[in-house]
Amino acid sequence: MNSQKAFPITPFETYLEMTQYGTEVHFEYDKYELLSGTLENGRMYFLIDYHTGLTYEVEQKIADLLLELYAKGKGDKLVQEITPRLAPFSSLSYS
């Protein structure tokens, strides 16, 4: 059983609001994209899963690990770090 902490789902509107001061793309790999936005109080990292269209908030230490794996060309390990942390479905409700 994998005990990795799941990435919280971020609604698209929240993602846009939180990255209004500018967005930096760090990598695109296997339909995953890691971005960061500069906020007034620091930097936030987001992972977009183009398989599902969901956006996730990523802690800085995990973003650093993903960037390190990407820089070393370890794509398989990168995906192995990402996929167990993704929610299999969205619990968001719309009314």
Write the layout of secondary structure elements.
Blueprint: H1 12-18, E1 23-29, E2 32-39, E3 42-49, E4 54-58, H2 60-71, H3 75-82
Antiparallel strand pairs: 1-2, 2-3, 3-4
Structure description:
The protein has 95 residues and is α+β, with helices and mostly antiparallel strands. Helices cover 28% and strands 29% of the residues. It is built from 3 helices and 4 strands; from the N terminus they run αββββαα. Strands 1-2-3-4 form a 4-stranded antiparallel sheet, with helices on both faces. The protein is globular, with a radius of gyration of 13 Å.
Number of strands: 4
Give the end-to-end Cα distance, rounded to a whole number of Å: 35 Å
Instruction: Specify the biggest β-sheet.
Output: 4 strands, antiparallel
Helical proportion?
25-40%
Report the β-strand fraction as a percent range: 25-35%
In oligomeric terms, what are we looking at?
Answer: single chain
Q: Describe the global form.
A: globular
Mean pLDDT, nearest integer?
A: 84
Alpha carbon gyration radius: 13 Å
- Note poorly predicted spans: 90-95
The number of helical segments is 3
Q: What is the string of helix and strand elements? A: HEEEEHH
**Arrangement of strands in the largest sheet:** 1-2-3-4
Briefly note the structural class of the backbone. Answer: alpha+beta
